[in-house]
Amino acid sequence: MLPDEFIREIERIVGAIGIVRDAERMQSYLSDWRNAYRGDAALVIRPASTEEVASVVRLCNQYQVTLVPQGGNTGLCGGSIPDASGTQVVLSLTRMTRIREVDPANETITVEAGVILQTLQEAAAEAGRLFPLALGAQGSCTVGGNLATNAGGTAVLRYGNMRDLALGLEVVLPDGRIWNGLRGLRKDNTGYDLKQLFIGSEGTLGVITAAVLKLYPAVRSTTTAWVALPSAQAAVELIGVIRELCGDRLTGFELMSRQSVEFVLSHVAGCSDPFAEPHPWYVLIELSDTQPDAPLNQLLEVGIGEALERELAIDAVLAGSEAQVAALWAMREGISEAQNHEGPSLKHDISVPVSSIPAFIEATNQRLIEQFPGVRIVAYGHVGDGNLHYNISKPIGCQDAVFKAHQEAIMRVIYDVTMSLRGSISAEHGLGQAKRDAAKHYKDPLELELMRALKATFDPKGLMNPGKVL
Ligand code: FAD
Ligand code: MLT
Ligand code: ZN
Question: What is the Cα–Cα distance from 392 to 400, expressed in whole angstroms?
């Protein structure tokens, strides 16, 4: 139970509009999109400015109340969900939605943490620029969440992840002090790069309240193709062909297994198979250019022609209209939702060197099928980054509880192969609560020791998102 005087003081800081106490209204803050994680909270606080965040955090520090920062609550590792104790406070940044500044000459935009990613993309477009981070949850995830998880998505192979897109941050530290690091500099060698510590820290070191982000020239032509492949090995070779031919014009290269596409075809309204025959693998390729009418179709046709000749591709279609482009991306982006319809799924977002993707798939598929007959492997993802979503759905007819009992063992198989290939157990989603224990097992003990030392320095009382990451 929180003391009455604490609640009164919070209400004085954020006003009645900034507090949610009603059990029913609190529900959407207490579980995630998949309903895979559920917690409880004493209060949801929704400050509207950096000063309000700082006052709230200072008060929490004084009363030793633990805080769970939350943005759009689209994270996939339970990082934004409070524990079950009912004593934690959810700090929602969703009222901090100001675009503070657009500086076209510096190619930067300064935004508050609660700005929705899609709103940011639109603001950049209005200024004749591109903000390139793109992911399935862009209509609801926030910049603060993107930074706190170092989000990746479908354009990383060209523009990098959130770590690469941030130039400066404003952060409220766990004691309530405000660090104003909102510098729009591409070069700054004055010691440790502190912003990089907060990026990817999943709310465990401080509350990100605003950021200066990089903008890029607007894209004025794109071409999109859906290509059927005989194997994952062919995808790795094909990306080499297309990259050599198109250089930085390659902005998307998404791999999907047949199982992934079948789930989409069964569950996502309006999707249809571009080919008459099923094929083992597919890639969605996107080329873009800043010039209008760039000859991207011809370029991609040359690449695909070579792939067909070398038997790296079986068949291909080029989107002929905006509607077809949208339909192809809907197939790719629909996989997460489609898999939800098949019961509980075990999500993994591993990375290995791009060249090791085929070896990873072959070794993991073989071990899983042997040890857990009937499991359905939904492998897809950002293959150009060496990042696979190697998600597992239960065997048809299997009880949810029986499947969940195997979760740990399935995860071990996947992560053991990942680590044997010098990979990472999380490429883009983070650790949250889902992979915290696995990180303890798989990460270098020295790295963990240094991470704990950083945590103790920034947050000696352990008030910021305890139980996540470490
Ligand atoms: P939340 O879920 O609210 O929070 C995520 C973490 O960040 C939590 O630990 C939280 O405590 C912390 N946090 C949030 N805001 C702040 C803040 N202001 N200060 C400090 N800490 C904070 N992710 C990818 O990387 N690539 C993808 O391709 C991708 N695709 C997705 C597709 C779908 C359909 C869905 C549902 C999710 C996808 N995600 C993807 C995961 C998710 O959308 C991203 O991780 C996103 O960046 C989370 O943003 P959010 O605002 O929802 O954060
Ligand atoms: C995606 O790329 O679609 C997401 O990051 C993966 C997921 O939802 O598992
Ligand atoms: Zn992804």
Answer: 13
Q: Is 275 in the pocket of ligand 1 (CB under 6 A)?
A: no
- Whole-angstrom distance, CA of residue 250 vs CA of residue 289: 9
Pairwise CA distance, residues 464 & 8, whole Å: 22
Token pair 């060698």: residue: 189
**Residue 421 identity:** L
Partnered with residue 168 across adjacent β-strands are 212
- The mean pLDDT value for 5-14 works out to 98
Cβ–ligand 2 distance for 332 under 6 Å, the answer no
- pLDDT value of residue 1: 84
Is residue 462's pLDDT more than 90? yes
pLDDT at 437 over 90: yes
410: enclosing H helix or E strand: helix 407-420
**What is the rounded distance in angstroms from the CA atom of residue 446 to the CA atom of residue 387?**
25
| From 110-114, 223-227, 302-306, 340-344, the region with the lowest mean pLDDT | 340-344
Cβ atoms of residues 147 and 211 within 8 Å: yes
* 347 in contact with ligand 2, CB cutoff 6 A: yes
CA distance 332 to 165: 24
Taking the C-alpha atoms of residue 79 and residue 267, their distance in angstroms, rounded to an integer, is 28
Contacts of 248 (CB under 8 A, 6+ apart): 158
159-201: pLDDT as tens digits: 999 999 999 999 999 999 999 999 999 999 999 999 999 999 9
Q: Would you say 25 and 63 are in contact if contact means Cβ atoms under 8 Å apart?
A: no
Region 67-95 average pLDDT: 98
Contacts of 203 (CB under 8 A, 6+ apart): 67, 68, 69, 70, 79, 80, 148, 464, 465, 468
Cα separation of 242 and 313, whole Å? Answer: 12
CA angle 442, 381, 315 (to 5 degrees): 145
**3-class DSSP assignment, residue 328:** helix
Ligand 2 centre from 125 Cα, in Å? 25
The SS3 assignment for 17 reads: helix
